[in-house]
Amino acid sequence: EAQVTQNPRYLITVTGKKLTVTCSQNMNHEYMSWYRQDPGLGLRQIYYSMNVEVTDKGDVPEGYKVSRKEKRNFPLILESPSPNQTSLYFCASAPRSSYNSPLHFGNGTRLTVT
Amino acid sequence: KNEVEQSPQNLTAQEGEFITINCSYSVGISALHWLQQHPGGGIVSLFMLSSGKKKHGRLIATINIQEKHSSLHITASHPRDSAVYICAVGVFAGEYGNKLVFGAGTILRVKS
Q1: pLDDT tens across A63-103, in order?
Q2: Is A91 exposed, middle or buried (0-12, 13-18, 19+ CB in 10 A)?
Q3: Optimal mutation site among A43, A45, A50, A89, interface B, most CBs of chain B within 10 A
Q4: Contact (CB<8Å) A102/B99
Q5: Cis peptide before A95 (omega within 30 of 0)
Q6: What digits encode the pLDDT tens for the residues A17-66?
Q7: Could you tell me if B35 lies within 8 Å of chain A, comparing CB atoms?
Q8: Residue A43 and residue B30: Cβ atoms within 8 Å?
């Protein structure tokens, strides 16, 4: 089944403890991206990747890192999480290196930083 | 002013009604997406448009590039259509391609 898989679905952690949220797609998509969703602010883009080894900042990249060593994986790394990074995170992929193609979303990761 | 504006913010309809959700944008775009998010959080892509009109079942999406406006219509609405509907536009962002800018969403509740 074609899908975008995020793990974990839920994560509670403490300030400063490094964590990684994984994202994997099995559709050979070139484009992958991370978003966070917060009440009153909606969805905002964190980072995106046009292809392997090509990444760029979205609107809210501070406090996050990403890597794209393989086409299928695009992990989101929080080196030193803070409470303001408590949010619902979504990974998405698209076939081509452009937004002129349909998006496929993961199921989301709800992160709480205490 | 937000780059993407949706209206209405909240919408309550009776089952069977025809529903329209609007999206206006102020920037040049490569494409416009309509997304659906049910309670519980998962996001599903409904349509991707760069011109004209698309139809899928009871859902119809239109876009007018000159007026920078798109509409999502739901015919014969049903309680299972209750969800948040989000408009998103692909905005040109330099040499690496596009970034996605989202509207705030429209919360739709369809009563039986």
Answers
A1: 999 999 999 999 999 999 999 999 999 999 998 765 567 88
A2: buried
A3: A43
A4: no
A5: no
A6: 999 999 999 999 999 999 999 998 889 999 999 889 989 888 899 999 99
A7: yes
A8: no
In SS3 terms, B37-90 reads as ECCCCCEEEEEEECCEEEEECCEEEEEECCCCEEEEEECCCCHHHCEEEEEEEE
CB-CB under 8 Å, B103 with A42: yes
Contact (Cβ atoms closer than 8 angstroms) between residue A60 and residue A14 = no
Is the Cα torsion angle A65, A67, A73, A79 positive or negative in sign? negative
Q: Are A99 and B98 in contact (CB under 8 A)?
A: yes
Contact A107 B42 (CB under 8 A): yes
* Interface mutation target, options A32, A34, A99, A100, chain B, most CBs of B under 10 Å: A99
List per-residue pLDDT tens for chain B, 112 residues long: 578 999 999 999 999 999 999 999 998 787 899 999 998 778 999 999 989 999 999 999 999 999 999 999 999 999 999 999 999 998 876 655 677 889 999 999 999 9
